[in-house]
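Q:
Got a chain?
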Amino acid sequence: MSELERYYRVLELEPGATLEEVNQAYKDLVFVWHPDRIPKENHRLHQKAQEKLKAINEARDRLRSLKVKHQTVTHSPPPQQRKPPQTTHQAPPKNPDLSGQDFSRANLSNKDLSGRNMSFANLSGANLSDTFMHKVILRGADLSEANLFRANLLLADLREANLRSANLIGADLSGADLRGADLTGARMRSGERLLVKLIGANLAGAIMPDGAVHQ
């Protein structure tokens, strides 16, 4: 097996998968194998998850690098057709600070917002289904009526966030800080079955879906 084939196999993909498929497979596998999802007292499984995550990161980085390089070569014009360099200013890099921004009703499904500062942002009614938001800062953010179906919010900062009537079915809030958050009317259960992962989450002072304050 070649090294390239091994990278595809790590990401559970067929050789020749597109860059979009590589990115999606990476997000899916990180969601499954992130060490923060594993109880720390289970040392064997925790070690296995760390090794898996290392292999997944390496495979994604190598495949993405190869595909970006291939696209650059494929779409590069012949030397005689290349335009002389222009002296225009390059666009600034993506700003990780999105605090206070208005994303109300925006479609952010499947986006990778991990590590972003989105404190006090307006995400009311936004579609955040399957969005990767590991360690995102959403302190004081308005997430009322947002769709967070299967969103990955591991270790997210959601202090004083407004999650009223949000859809949290299938979301992973393991290790998240929900102190003082308002979850009134949020969808978290099907009958008596809790369908949100809250392992290690801090819910002190949070208003639960039934209106009770968590002690």
